[in-house]
Structures are given as C-alpha cells and as structure tokens.
Design goal:
There is one protein chain. Helix 2 packs antiparallel against helix 4. With about 60 residues, the protein is mainly alpha-helical. The radius of gyration is 14 Å and the shape is elongated. It starts with a helix and ends with a helix. It contains four helices and no strands. The chain has one domain.
Length: about 60
C-alpha cells in the first residue's frame, strides 16, 4: 500500500498540496454559505486541508521530488 501511495505521489507531484488548497477554499465557501452548521463551526475542511498540504510537502521532499 505504501508503494502505491509513493508511486502516486511521484507521478502526480503536487496533487496532495493542490487537494489541500482545494479543501481550504471549500471550507471558506462552506463558512460563507452556511455559517451556523457544524462543519462551519469546527472548520474541519480547513484543518484537514492544511494537514494534507503539509503532509504532501513532506512526502514530496522525502521522495526526492
């Protein structure tokens, strides 16, 4: 499984970072459209997006991209 993930990251170098950015933007839209919901109050997409972006940078650096 780890080989498949590393192969995917090597093939699509910026995919985890771009997905993280997309989740942060999606969180902004959710907060604007429905500010009183659980998803907007916890900022779940923001936290997942930032963690995924940082993980993508770290994995990309470790794999020598």
């Amino acid at each position: 499984m780890l080989d498949r993930i590393s192969g995917f990251i090597q093939q699509y170098k910026g995919a985890p970072v771009l997905l993280g950015i997309l989740l942060v933007i999606l969180n902004f839209v959710v907060v604007l459209l429905s500010p009183g919901t659980w998803m907007a109050s916890t900022n779940l997409l923001l936290h997942v997006g930032v963690a995924l972006g940082l993980l993508g940078i770290l994995l990309g650096d470790a794999l020598g991209l």
